[in-house]
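Chapter summary example.
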Amino acid sequence: MVLRFELDNLTRHEVHRLLEEHLADMHATSPPGSVHALDLGELRDPAVEFWSAWEGAELRGCGALKDLGGGDVELKSMRTAQAARGKGVGTVMLRHLLRVAVERGHQRVLLETGSQDFFAPARRLYARHGFTVREPFAGYVPDPNSVFMELRLDHDRESQGVAVSTLMEGSNVLGRRVKAERTRRGWSLARLADASGVSRAMISKIERGESNPTAVVLGKLSAALELSMTALLSPADGAAAGRVRRAADTPRWTDPDSGYLRRQISTPGFPVDVTEIVLPAGARVPMPAGSYAFIAQLIWVLDGELTLVDGAAAHRLSPGDTFELGEPQAREFVNDTAEKCRYVVVVTRKATA
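The structure predicted for these 353 residues follows.
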């Protein structure tokens, strides 16, 4: 799903209907006095920027930012249209609004959401992107029906998935690389689909730059093409040996499912792949066994706590701990803490022991 974001003037009937549905749900879920959703008149406040998300002519979602002053901005009116539920619209909308907040120079994003089960998916979405629970703000009062959260944008913005420039934006590095590797092998879409277990439709969308695949899908494609994920996400060329590559120019990719960030430290021509990973609080990233069939891999934890599920075993890794992966098998990288986890992955193309 490719979304087009518009800074909306709140005049279209489709937008009005979506906001009416949003308000109706809020009032049906929360008791009187605990509903803080903005109505149409409040969204027209000059301090509010309201964005709509469109797929062609279809409205898929919306969200808003309310400037609170002093570098703070409040996230409001996050809503996904019924027809687009379960397709990642909320994730894409949130990342768009975070990029806007960064571009506007805000230092902190604040929000209020419900404490009921109805709001659990929203709370998980915010936690995956680095939001943490805090006390009430800007006139809110303590309320058992409310959860207040914040995200600081002036601390390690890249780890929050809000970098304005990523691998998947603009140049479609991944799509072009997948197509080039498939063509070089003389494979059809059907052949790559059979080898990877990824549908032809999904591969076609990736190649055209119309889909940002999950880490699981990338793992399947890398296994089928016998390329590391780093190689698959890298352009054919990179910084020349002996030259400095600035942090701002380092390729990045964010998993749309878990929100985890890959920052590719080494260039394509370097003998080993070195990648920095930031795993948000509460995130889980499963990887298929085929991802490890042709590589040796070492994990080195820098910050936070990482649980590495290695087949039937689970290993808790703390800062400074390392783990060398053995025989290929399904694995899962889990951050079950309230803080982000940062680790380095070192990969070499070598048969595992």
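To summarize the output: Confidence is low (pLDDT under 50) at residues 155-171.
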